[in-house]
Amino acid sequence: MAAEDDTTIYLARHGDRYDYAHEDVWAARAEELGFDARDPPLSALGHAQSRELAAKLLELTGGRAAAVLASPYLRVIQTAQPFAHLVGLPIELEEGLAEVSHAPGSIPTAAQRFPYLPEVALGRPFGVPVVATTTDARTCLPSELYPIDYFRRTVRLADFLPRAYAGRTVVCFSHAASVALVALLSARGVREVGKFAPCGIFKLVGRAGGGPWRVELHGGDNSGHVSANSPTTHAWGFAESRWPIEEHWATVLGELARTGA
């Protein structure tokens, strides 16, 4: 049970992706129509999962949330929509929650999303903007270098969220790689923290006095509130990565220890 001065973060992953469920069709239409295939919407199943997720989050939060934050990717905004409708809050886009190897400028802005997704808040600066250190070969735009830039961004996000929402509850919608945020706040290994299921929910509670955050709900299992899953969008964690994850994670934690940031 959270105390009145605790800070609570609900972290939810997006639902089933349309491109994973219809890979050949999506790729062919992207080539035919000339759009970027890397910002797909939800599938029909993903929309159904998101409605179930919204109902569960409403139950967990009692409808009391200071803000609804979402990665600026379409599938995540769509996942956040049903909950935003239930609680009557706008969806505030947060680049700190964006997909790994994010290239700023590669996806539509909040203003460009608004005509189709009017729940999106306008004029909000990112609390944690992406710091690009390489170039995305597909877009020729500045991009993060995976995974170390993503881990550095996670450190900035773990600093921003408790300061911005101290003593309150914030609901965040993101991607599977956000298990890194759970690992950082709870002082666990980035592989140890496990996987993130589609529309899974992590509940993280931080005490005002500091110390590791409590993980009161684990997002690796969505079976308590999601009635169907697809093998195409499955639970994922850094244990599945072929990169030397522990080495990069240790580097970033070492940087954090030296700077005290």
TrEMBL record:
Transmembrane segments: none annotated. This is Phosphoglycerate mutase. Gene3D superfamilies: Phosphoglycerate mutase-like. InterPro entries: His_Pase_superF_clade-1, His_PPase_superfam, Phosphatase_SH3-domain.
